[in-house]
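seq as requested:
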Amino acid sequence: MPLDPTVVADRGAGCLLGGALGDALGAPVEFMRLDEIRKEYGPAGITHPPRLGLITDDTQMTLFTAEGYLRAWVRGKHQGQWGPAALVWLSYRRWLDTQQQRAPAPDAVGLLADKRLYASRAPGVTCLRVLQAANEVTEVPDPEHPINDSRGCGGVMRAAPAGFAPTAETAYGLGCEFAALTHGSPAGWAPAGALAMIVHLVAIRRRSLVEAVDQATGRVLRDDRETAHALAAATALAGYDAAKAEQAREARAFGRRVVTGGPSDRSIERLGGGWVGPEALAIAVYSALSHRTPERFPDALRLAANHSGDSDSTASIAGNLLGALHGAAALPREWLGRLELSDLIDQVGRDLAASCTGSGFDEDHYRF
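C-alpha cells:
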C-alpha cells in the first residue's frame, strides 16, 4: 500500500505529541507509590496533565533524537554520508547544554536556539554521567562496544523517532544504536529497537498494534530474551484482561452477576516498575493494547501513569505507540492545549514523517 504523506505526517506528529502528553501526565507522580498517588489525587489517581503540562527529559531527549536523525538524513541526501548514531550522539551532547546552561548562546542553532528547552526536569543519572564524560570517549558507543552495562529505561523512552526510518529493520537497528549510546546492556538498548519497530509498523506500514508487537517480539528475541519475554507477558496479560472486561460487559447486558477483571494496576504491577527498559516497554505496550481504540487514548495513558514506578516514561512510551497508531487527531484537544512546547513537538514529528515519505520539509533547519 503506497504511503499517504498526509496520514503519515499526522502520525508523526501524533507519535511525538502523544509521548509528550504521557510524559506530562506522569511527571507529577514519577517518584510516588500508587497509594501516595491516590491519596494525593483521589481513587482514580492522576487523570489529567496539570494546567501547565510540563515535559521532562523524556520528551527533551526524544526531540534531540529526532534532530540528530534528521541531520543525518539531510546530510545523507545531499552529501552521501550516512551516520545517524554519530550525529545523535552529538545531539545528546547538545541536549546536555540545556541542562547546564540557563539560556541559548548567541550563535545557537536548531533546538539549542529555543530557550524553552533550557530546563532541567529530573534528567536520568545514567545519561548525565555518560554525556558529561563524553570528551573522554574515543569512539561512539554501540551495542558491540558498550560504554556501561546500564539496563535503565533512559534508552527506550527517547527512541520513538527511529521508527520513521525507511524500513522496519532499519528502525529496529537505529533504535538499538541510539539507546546504546548511553545504555550498554542489551536490556537497555533492545527495548528501544523494539519500540522503534512497532512505531514504524503501525505508523508507516499500517499494521495493527497486535501484529506490530508480535513482529517486534520475534525480532528482539534474537538480541535480548528478557525484552522478548516482557513483551510476550504484556501481550498475554492484555488479552486476558480484555477477555475479562468483555465478560463483564456481557454480564451487565444480560443482567447476570458481573465478573471481576479487566485492565488494572494489578497487571501493571506484575510487569514491574518500569525503571528498566524491558519493564517500561512492557507496561506501555500493555496499556496501549488494553485501550487500543482512539477514544480510549486518555485511559491508556492514565493506566500507564498510575503505578508505583517510572510513571512519566511508561506513559510517554504508551503515548508514542498510540499516537503513531491513530495520529494527532486522536489526542485530547484539552490536553494538547496545556502541553508545553506543543508547537515545536508537532513540527518535529511532521518533519520526521516527511523524511520517511519523501515529502518536502525545511531541510535547512537541520543543516549545521
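The chain has one domain: 5-366.
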